[in-house]
Automatic annotation (TrEMBL):
<dbReference type="InterPro" id="IPR029058">
    <property type="entry name" value="AB_hydrolase_fold"/>
</dbReference>
<feature type="active site">
    <location>
        <position position="283"/>
    </location>
</feature>
<comment type="similarity">
    <text>Belongs to the peptidase S33 family.</text>
</comment>
<dbReference type="GO" id="GO:0006508">
    <property type="term" value="P:proteolysis"/>
</dbReference>
<dbReference type="GO" id="GO:0016020">
    <property type="term" value="C:membrane"/>
</dbReference>
<feature type="domain" description="AB hydrolase-1">
    <location>
        <begin position="67"/>
        <end position="316"/>
    </location>
</feature>
<dbReference type="InterPro" id="IPR050266">
    <property type="entry name" value="AB_hydrolase_sf"/>
</dbReference>
<dbReference type="InterPro" id="IPR000073">
    <property type="entry name" value="AB_hydrolase_1"/>
</dbReference>
<dbReference type="InterPro" id="IPR002410">
    <property type="entry name" value="Peptidase_S33"/>
</dbReference>
<dbReference type="GO" id="GO:0008233">
    <property type="term" value="F:peptidase activity"/>
</dbReference>
<protein>
    <submittedName>
        <fullName>Alpha/beta fold hydrolase</fullName>
    </submittedName>
</protein>
<keyword id="KW-0378">Hydrolase</keyword>
<dbReference type="InterPro" id="IPR005945">
    <property type="entry name" value="Pro_imino_pep"/>
</dbReference>
<dbReference type="Pfam" id="PF00561">
    <property type="entry name" value="Abhydrolase_1"/>
</dbReference>
<feature type="active site" description="Proton donor">
    <location>
        <position position="310"/>
    </location>
</feature>
<feature type="active site" description="Nucleophile">
    <location>
        <position position="144"/>
    </location>
</feature>
């Protein structure tokens, strides 16, 4: 789940999907009887520590397909998903940006006790209710940490889902840590890895040398293999470090925070909703694990981006966007497993 602290846009993918809905349907005439906000809806949520507001913004309108986006980090913002605007509208797919509590435009209680996976699950459920999403239209896409949250939500509330997308996240932190230590780390030059390990042993994570080593030797290989696009740089530059360190831990080689023992691999067969598992050949997450996720759920499809890393929607954009839209439109037609 590591993050980089901007690749020219490629041509849009071909699509065999049905023609998109007319623009008058996707962008309906505004209701002049109310004050318009460009799709922004601030959702009040109730937590054990009181009431807060989280920010959402709807893009487009399709009563059958409403895709809620859960950003990663933990603690980044919705902004790195802005690439979706170049692909999903042409397919008539409505999508919704959402700032989790502590992220982006949403309230930040600055209370580490609020950074809790079960509490975030209940937050997503409150957002779902406020946005009137249901089993006939609700698709949930989580990326990285957002996939942990999406999986936890689905395991408790899948009756409200039409489809689930697990993007670039293994379903076991112990397995992720093992992959990072045994597969990713040895790919680095020994002298580089040795210096990184020395800095981590001293807990010297704020040392500028730590990032100097990680950016060309790790991030450029496994996080994003093209120059970081502006929306991603803008998003990751706003990461809530309190949330990130509390949940993920300070190291970029595996997790050591509250998520250190999280493992839902054994529970994957409980998921009956259609699931799309997305990975990248060069991802921080093991591609074979992402294929396994698709096999273990009841109705799974796998999409492995051959040129992609952790942010495959940027560095293997044609593969990622073509597969994502094809899968969503197929599930909308009633299919449960889709060949990608």
């Amino acid at each position: 789940m590591a993050w980089w602290r901007p690749a020219p846009r490629r041509s849009p993918p071909d699509s065999a999907a049905p023609a998109a809905a007319p623009l008058t349907s996707y962008f309906p005439a505004p209701d002049t009887a109310q004050v318009l906000t460009g799709g922004v809806q601030v959702v009040p949520i109730t937590t054990p520590k009181g009431k807060f507001n989280v920010w959402t913004k709807r893009f487009g309108h399709n009563p059958r397909i409403r895709l809620l986006l859960l950003n990663g980090g933990p603690g980044a913002t919705h902004e790195y998903f802005e690439c979706m605007e170049s692909f999903l509208p042409r397919e008539g797919i409505e999508f919704i940006y959402y700032g989790q509590l502590g992220c982006g435009n949403s309230d930040n209680p600055k209370d580490t006790s609020m950074w809790s996976l079960p509490r975030y699950v209940e937050e997503v459920e409150q957002v779902r209710q406020a946005l009137k999403l249901d089993k006939d239209n609700f698709y949930l896409l989580g990326h990285s940490w957002g996939s942990i949250l999406a999986a936890e939500y689905a395991l408790k509330y899948q009756q409200h889902l039409k489809g689930l997308i697990i993007s670039n996240m293994m379903m076991s932190i112990p397995a992720y840590n093992k992959y990072a230590a045994e597969v990713l780390a040895p790919q680095m030059k020994p002298e580089v890895l040795r210096e990184i390990r020395q800095l981590e042993a001293r807990k010297d994570f704020q040392n500028p040398r730590y990032m100097e080593l990680l950016e060309p030797n790790f991030y450029a290989e496994h996080l994003c293999r093209v120059p970081l696009p502006e929306p991603a740089a803008r998003s990751l530059g706003k990461t809530n470090q309190s949330l990130y360190v509390t949940m993920q831990g300070p190291s970029e080689f595996g997790a050591s925070g509250k998520l250190v023992n999280w493992d839902r691999t054994a529970d994957l067969p409980k998921l009956a909703v259609p699931v799309l598992s997305i990975g990248g050949k060069y991802d921080t997450m093991a591609p074979e694990h992402m294929r396994m996720v698709a096999r273990q759920v009841q109705h799974g499809s796998a999409l492995i981006c051959p040129n992609g890393s952790h942010m495959s929607f940027y560095d293997d954009q044609p593969t990622y966007m073509r597969g994502l839209t094809k899968w969503i439109l197929a599930v909308d037609r009633g299919e449960t497993k889709v060949a990608l």
